[in-house]
Amino acid sequence: MRLYHHPFSFNARRAVMAAIELGSPVELVFVDLAQGAQRQPQFLELNPNHRVPVLEDDGFILWESHAIMQYLADKTPGQTLYPIAIRARADVNRWLFWCAHHFSPAVSVLNWEHVIKGLIGLGGPDPGEIKRGETLVSEFAGVLDAHLSGRDWICGEAPTLADLAIATPLAQIEQARLPVGQLRHLQSWFSRVRDLAAWQKTRPA
Ligand SMILES: N[C@@H](CCC(=O)N[C@@H](CS)C(=O)NCC(=O)O)C(=O)O
Question: 33 CB less than 6 Å from ligand 1?
């Protein structure tokens, strides 16, 4: 299997982390986003949305990071990251959708304003966007923090796809000035995720 990624993409990172934790036999293929490789015809054939990650498995092409995580887990006999029991699986799915629809987009606003715009020379942060991003992140991170009170992991007693998916947008926690410093349950959980081998192995150089 080939997994197209970029080391600075938190969307790609969650798929790469899942592959590592699951022991999936993937070959990582670097897509040079800074040079616009994702808009070249060859890549657009894989993903017309011009985004990483993309998984290629013997002619089957899959994009969307959360779907890739689920697929890799489903291909792995005996794995524990994505429970089989219907309610346990629904719980993980709930947090994966929450990540895709609420948490990641909220964090992306502040990542864009505080980190990416500067890197690609698009000028300073927009105060209106920062306020919008801070409001969104505070709201959703607050939900996560309350959920993590008395829990080590988001679903059940051990890490699942939910922990991997939701942690990667926090990678730039300081540079993106995410307003989560006071959220102590979230902070302790995030330090547990940072101890996972997959987190260490996917740290951008
Ligand atoms: N919903 C998608 C989002 C993927 C995404 O936005 N990837 C970004 C990198 S973090 C990308 O490839 N951007 C390149 C572009 O927009 O041209 C997923 O979860 O896979």
Answer: yes
The helix (H) or strand (E) run that includes residue 62 is strand 60-63
- pLDDT by 10s per residue, the chain, length 205: 999 999 999 999 999 999 999 999 999 999 999 999 999 999 999 999 999 999 999 999 999 999 999 999 999 999 999 999 999 999 999 999 999 999 999 999 999 999 999 988 999 999 999 999 999 999 999 999 999 999 999 999 999 999 999 999 999 999 999 999 999 999 999 999 999 999 999 998 7
Could you tell me the distance, in angstroms and rounded to a whole number, from the CA of residue 37 to the centre of ligand 1? 13
- Residue 178 near ligand 1, beta carbon < 6 Å: no
Q: In the chain, what are the domains? A: 2-74 (3.40.30.10), 86-197 (1.20.1050.10)
Provide the whole-model pTM. Answer: 0.97
Cα 174 from Cα 170, distance rounded (Å) = 9
Which ligand 1 atom is at minimum distance from the Cα of 6?
A: 9
What is the number of other CB atoms lying within 10 angstroms of the CB of residue 67? 15
> How many helices (DSSP H) and strands (DSSP E) are in the chain?
10, 4
